User: Fold these one by one.
Assistant:
Number 1:
Amino acid sequence: MLELSIQDVQVDNQLIGTTQPFMLYVTPLSNENEVIETGPAVQVNAVKSPSKSALTNIYKHLMVTAQRFTVQIEEKLLLKLLSFFGYDQAESEVEKYDENLHEKTAEQGGTPTRYYFENLKISIPQIKLSVFTSNKLPLDLKALKSTLGFPLIRFEDAVINLDPFTRVHPYETKEFIINDILKHFQEELLSQAARILGSVDFLGNPMGLLNDVSEGVTGLIKYGNVGGLIRNVTHGVSNSAAKFAGTLSDGLGKTMDNRHQSEREYIRYHAATSGEHLVAGIHGLAHGIIGGLTSVITSTVEGVKTEGGVSGFISGLGKGLVGTVTKPVAGALDFASETAQAVRDTATLSGPRTQAQRVRRPRCCTGPQGLLPRYSESQAEGQEQLFKLTDNIQDEFFIAVENIDSYCVLISSKAVYFLKSGDYIDREAIFLEVKYDDLYHCLVSKDHGKVYVQVTKKAASTSSGVSIPGPSHQKPMVHVKSEVLAVKLSQEINYAKSLYYEQQLMLRLSENQEQLELDC
């Protein structure tokens, strides 16, 4: 006999800088008339009976019951997971793998084990599904997306009610039962296609509006709750307005330069409460107006940098002229969308859109040797600090962090940063920054009984400013509380410096070569 209960289930999105921090969590209470569910998130109950045959497993019953879940699928994360599990591998590799699998099964031979259930039931009553598309994808993920054969459409909070999978007296192999379960829930999802289509953003989420109005009317009829009706109708109308305006704004965003679009997304998607949405709307409007006024200059400069020559100048100038109109309009739509979301969240019983809290920061996926390290909260926090300092530019990766009494030392693949301690980290917190191009070596120094980390910079010629071999007289020192920690810091900094110079000697494919490979 097996009785298993899992009180809570949550899967955090581990992408850095993601706008959707959760992949899966138990759906919170969204309306005051709902009955509070106090049971576990997942419950498994199984009773196995003895069997006289080694090829037969007998179960009196197997029941799996889950609460309502919210699933948020981010396009970039989905593509990365597909790539990780080998979806984009060559067909020859897939065929070879399948052939080996069949050969191994044939060699083993014999009759497969079968499972008998007097009662088999799997119940997932409701899923609240959202899909968030990405405006910018790396080249490898774009290539993978083109092989999927179907585009992802952005929608939010599509309520999907699923009938339970129930079988009485099945006597089948494990593979057959698993396929039967998958087929059942696939058919259930397909039967809800109209509900999903009614939740898409470009239609203004009409199903969400209908659900809000119906909930309000139900509360009025059953409980005489007039306030609930007003709140639900306000929530539904403002939510539809926010979705529609946001879709128009995203469409205009495709005509903008990458930097402006990244700044827009950061402003829009990092608001959680109604007050933050209102502030984000004002910032988005100001950002659009300023972007429109400076569009010709910034886009022309970016065109010359990226494409070069006269063609880059003309291309950048054209984008700049278009941006002069589209950026302020997009800013106004952002303001309308965020204001509507502020009204929506004010009318929501549960306050912010989700009540879940992130359990884990995005993990550090690459160690100094290029291997996947064990999860470390301090490393995850250090990586987050690094991307705040570098404005989410991910060509500089995290190596190590050491927290000392009044400051911390952040070691990256390009530089070492000495930062003042504080709740919020930005570039103003840096009191010493040394790039490895300017670093000669790092030593442990002692003076009057105190221990210091001495960072010696390279000597530079006074005329040209170009670094020449040998140390300079610039040797900033930072006090460290113990010699052991000072030795560890100096070793980590010198090791990161040696890694940096190794990277400089590596041959890399140019962007043009990578594009040619993708086109082949």
Number 2:
Amino acid sequence: MVKNAWEVSETYLNKGQAYTLTVKDSSPPVAPIGLIQYRTFIRISFGEEERSNPTGCWRLWMESRGKNEAHRRGGEPRAIEYLDDIQDGGGDNTRDRVDLQQAFFDGFCITWTADPSASTPECSIPLRFNFLSTDFSHAKGVKGIPVRLCVKTELLSPKNDVGMAHEPELCYRKVKLFRDHGAGRKSTNDVRHAQKQSTSSINGLRKQKEGLVPPNGDASIVSREAWHIPDIMRLRTQKDMASTQYMLSSACSVSYLDLRGNKEDDPDLYPIRLSSDGGRVQVEARGRQSLSRSNLSPSDSKISPVSRTSSFEAVDVDPSYRAPSGRPPKPTACFYARFAGEQNFYRAIYLMERTVQELAEKLSAKRQIDPKYIVHVLHINKNGLPVVVDDDVVRELPEGQTMTVDVCDATGMECNDAAGGSTSPLEIKLMY
């Protein structure tokens, strides 16, 4: 349940309950030779605040619940597990097409073969969560930590399709785990709270229109003509009502993993392993597969001194190189823009600050346009209404927002260039 379309929603789940996660390939290989096989890796990772110390979070879970419930799963701690003993209700051969490759305490990896008779390759994966959101914090009785349910899927075979991109896809969904039937109770409470807010907003607006509540809160008798409601108060009330109505309509029984994962969410690049000495947790910032040195060959023209590190050998090393002392500033936001008239691909737009000027400059740079000719930026909503984009709008845009960008002439306006001549002003229209 979310208050607006820009808020990142959370899915409420119950610990110990069996769920089904369905993976579909929306762009399967065309006329493949042989069977289509995929690899799917499902793991639990943390958000921005807890990502700096995932070791501590998993250690808390291990000490409080992981060890105590490991005997239920053959002595192995499993925060999330693949349920290979679930009977298929549809009578298909899904279980025959799925092979569990590896199981870790924070996730598991399977390979699956698409049904040749199906028009869209898909796989239903039964799983269960064995943790609570409060397991990752010392403070009990408070709100639990939302975690990321990450899914990485890649095509294994065939890989000989011309013009088809088969890069792995990594997506995630924010989830919260509750005890017993706590997810249903939390969802019901959210609905009741939203309904109460909606009723309160409607009653408040009705009283304001009738003149029963003066702006200063004075309980004395005030006539209808003695005061009027400021527009800002009326708009604020209407905004609250729209927000609560959106909350009531946003709850759904099926959740989609529609957020793009970061590299830290990749289970192959940033695995977390458990050591055998007392259940301690250690983080390895390398792939689960060992690094092969066969791809690192010396240059044919010149062989430079070899620099040895703990995991690989490097060639063409400049011994006079010194790493820069300061770290470059990091972007504060990343959006994905597809310009009108281009093919169906998006360009990454990185903002150093969340302002409309920064957004206009970055978009202008992608189109090789002088940003001084941009007079304004508009957001064309679903109803076709143009809304002026300011710093507040840019600040509330969700991370990874996709948008269609149209740079066109601004009608009825004129700009002067440095030479004193006039030129056609431009406006940027955003559609998302």
Number 3:
Amino acid sequence: MNKKKILIVSASFYPENSPRSFRTTELAKEFSRQGHFVMVITPRISEFHDEFEKNNNLIIKDLGLQKWKSIRLKGTGINRLIRRFILRFSKLLFEYPDIQLFWMVKKALENEKDYDLLISIAVPYPVHWGVAASRSEKHSIATTWVADCGDPYVGQENDTFKVPFYFSWVEKWFMRKADFISVPTNGAIAAYFPEFHFKIKVIPQGYRFEDYQFDTSKLNNSRPTFAYAGMFMPGRRDPSEFIQYLNTVDIDFEFHIYTQTPQFVKGINSDLMKKIFIHDPVPRKELMNILSRMDFLVNFENVGNRQKPSKLIDYLILNKPVLSIKTGDLNKNTVNEFLSGNYDCQMLIENPDQYRIENICNKFIELAN
């Protein structure tokens, strides 16, 4: 394999706990492990990244920190309501505060050149826009630019509001300039404008499976023990119906929830408080160790087929039965079966090797050849 000079641009990186951070970090580590030259442009934190560079034989260039801050939700009553309104619609109408990444990325790329492969990571999408603004015939930066789209933007299905029409122009503009667009699933292709489908390549999220081997030989839970890790969205990835049904179940169990959105976990009565435990998010490796000790794991499905939760790959790596729940269509019989230890109706994820990071990186390298 010819060694490549690779540049990755992302607003999220280790030690941040987010899907885009995991995407960027795993790609950078594996490309370097394969012997390629790797430069990552991201907000640099010396406390973490000095050692990370040495351990993984790569370079991290500072993108800088965003100066415009997100509006904080504080106060009560009408004051809080007004802040929520401003926060929601400043994001929707102007992509605030992430729009500043457009200029930050553009500036960071001014002197970068002669790469074989440039990968930009979204969300947020202004990362792609900044690359598009910087890249030209005279300043191509890299022979091949792949715009990696973890979630759709204009064509998303899981937000209450659609983005304004003028962002369609922006999306088409950057996609015209990109050589390839990578998406995590086949279903995601429909979320993008048809004229760019010929550029789209399906490259899933990937991990090094060997990093997540845990000893579960002594697993012996005294009652059905299960967990969910991720965000909730009312009316979409919504736990309400599932929680309501658990209120009625005359079975002892233990349900652990790790989430940034605990406000959407409602309807827990006094009895359930002894069975359902809500936790703050924890670092990925720690979380995976915790999940490995569960009898089964829970997935709350997104609306439509365009976005699949990346946590399903985590569940696959751990080789745990998955109870998949569709909002508004709870199968109570399946829930009962899982609680009794019958996993015949578990969600199946095909071809585990497609999520191995070495295979993911090879797909990107093929685009640069």
